[in-house]
Amino acid sequence: MNVSFMWHMHQPDYRNEEGIMQMPWVFLHAVKDYYDMPWMLSRYQNIHATFNITAPLIQQLKLYYKNPEQSDKFLSLWLKNPSSLKSQERQWLIKICKSSQFETMVKGLPRYEELYRKDALDDDEFLDLEILFLLSWCGNYLQKNNLHVKRLLQKERNYTNEDKAELLEELSKFTAGIWAFYKELYDAKRITISTTPFYHPILPLLLDMQNAKRANNQTQIPPNYEKLEEDARLHVQQAKDLFFDTFGYTTDVFWPAEGAVDEQSVKLLKSLGVHFIATDEEILYKSLNTKNKNLIYTPYNHNNMLIGFRDHKLSDLIGFEYRYKEAGEAAENFMSALESVQNINDNATVFVILDGENAWEFYKNNGFDFFEALYTSLEKASWCTTLTTDEVKSLPSRKLSKLAPGSWINASFDTWVGEYEKTRAWELLFLAKKDYEHHKERLDEDIKVKIREYFLKAECSDWFWWYGSDHYTNFALEFDAIFRRYLINIYKLIGISVPNDLYIPISKNQSSTKFWIKPQSKITPNIDGKRDSFFEWMGCGVIDESKVFSTMQSNTGPVKKIYYGQDDTKLYFAFEGAVENLCKKGRINIIIDPTGVSIKISFHQKETVLQGIKVKSACKEWLEISLDKEQIKQKKIWLRFEIEQNSASLQTLPSFGELAIDLQDDYAKNWFI
Fold this sequence. Notes:
Elements lengths: L1 E8 L15 H10 L1 H7 L6 E5 L1 H7 L11 H6 L8 H11 L4 H5 L3 H7 L6 H15 L2 H6 L1 H9 L5 H15 L2 H10 L3 E4 L8 H5 L2 H6 L13 H19 L5 E2 L8 H9 L4 E5 H8 L11 E3 L2 E6 L1 H10 L5 H18 L4 E7 L12 H13 L4 E2 L2 H4 L5 E2 L20 H20 L5 H14 L2 H6 L9 H19 L21 E2 L23 E4 L14 E8 L3 E8 L8 E8 L3 E6 L4 E4 L2 E7 L3 E6 L7 E10 L2 E6 L5 E4 L11
Parallel strand pairs: 1-2, 1-8, 1-9, 2-3, 4-5, 5-7, 6-10
Antiparallel strand pairs: 6-7, 11-12, 12-13, 13-14, 14-19, 15-16, 15-20, 17-18, 18-19, 20-21, 20-22
């Protein structure tokens, strides 16, 4: 059988009108993922794959080749002496520097862990935090092979401004060789390099917003939408042009942004020289009106366009699930799944397609151990061959007469249109387009070119992804501001008044309040595993795990909500979801830092003393736990919960990091009359 991996590398365009990057994620993923991913593949002689690299990523990475502080807001502030920073600048830097995933990037760097938990930092501590943040983003290649990075990691603390300047210079030189490395692997026929329409737009929505309703009749779309066919064509053609300028050849392999397809977008891609695309298996099922999963294991030919349909489950196992497993166990599980396919489908070709950058910060060791186990297993498996998409093109294909519209998420477009915030963003975009069309005849050509570029940037799928309630980010305000700034700049270039609505944030839920309610008062519930009374837990804190997820993080464990609180003597926790199914076999491991205490509670335990702490638990309608505070000497603790069954980890909570609790909080600040 064949396995065709496609790793999707993408960041939206973070540049403002002066060309300055407003967010540092391109640079951070460059030193952690964009080199490491092909480097890990290159260590294995027979592993082939496809890397999809988007145009804004190509453009923006080039800004970091020399003097990156001149092109990046974060790095320009990061490079300054902490004493020269304004208060607002300092707070913004701290927000970024505390955005690393705690379990996998902060832990293991003791000084970083210490500073991560501090609310106030002096200049020396602030300098350590800045450098350790950047070091935490350095990938395995840099940590193993770069002498400067290794020296600074070994130093651990007491960094200087000279250390800072040296680190940035070294990482800047490193980024300059990344695209050349991809080209080297392509020339060796180890990888295919593909791309995406320029600014990562949802092509079917640009061509016809009705596609959203064709995919899901319940989806609400803007009433006065525009068909942006010219923009759609520009996205494809400009992506091909930039790809040629960067790699010296023309690719005919595309990953449509978000796997979004319809008949018209495929026709457009074909007319511009694209011969192979990929999307999700759910699109095939809707196209064939079947749920027969065995049908996805072959390339399809739709009007002379070859299409690969991703195995959704296998792709999501890597993207979302295997970070909870040990590397060897995850690789074994993946190979077992492939064998199951092979047993039913002779000559099957499995397409495994997912984000190639965001998942690994949730993995131990940035995914290195997992890929070492996976690629080793694949090399040893004589029955399995990994193929690039260029190699897939030579395989037999099956005819597909109809292609249903949809994306990689539920074969619909609801992630990008439908909710109020998403639809409002589209409305403002369409309004700007109408105003531009009304005035464009009087504009000079160079102004038209600038305006067209801002429209293309505003059509990026990422902005619509982060609007609404289905995804959460600490940087919703920043993303919202970038989107609206593109439209504001269009009006300024046209020379007409900017609509007041563009100065009002679209995002209404701009903080963790959408998934996290902090405790309001003391509670003293009865620990019996029953939902005895609403008033028992009234005033408690609530973390809604079903709403805590980002691009490469989804909650699929048994716990959907965590309730917590305290009184003068005890801490209380309740876990809602499918935990009742685990009562007989499961247990919860409570890890308390900085005490270092780890308490393993079987769900059927009643009352006991573990690690010196009196514990009571009950699991019937839900799981309830109390911990005596008397034996915990610290004033403030940080907790993590691990749900286990048969010694396998099912879920780690909270999924956003640690839960900080002040044991002496009297909640007086929340009282009112």
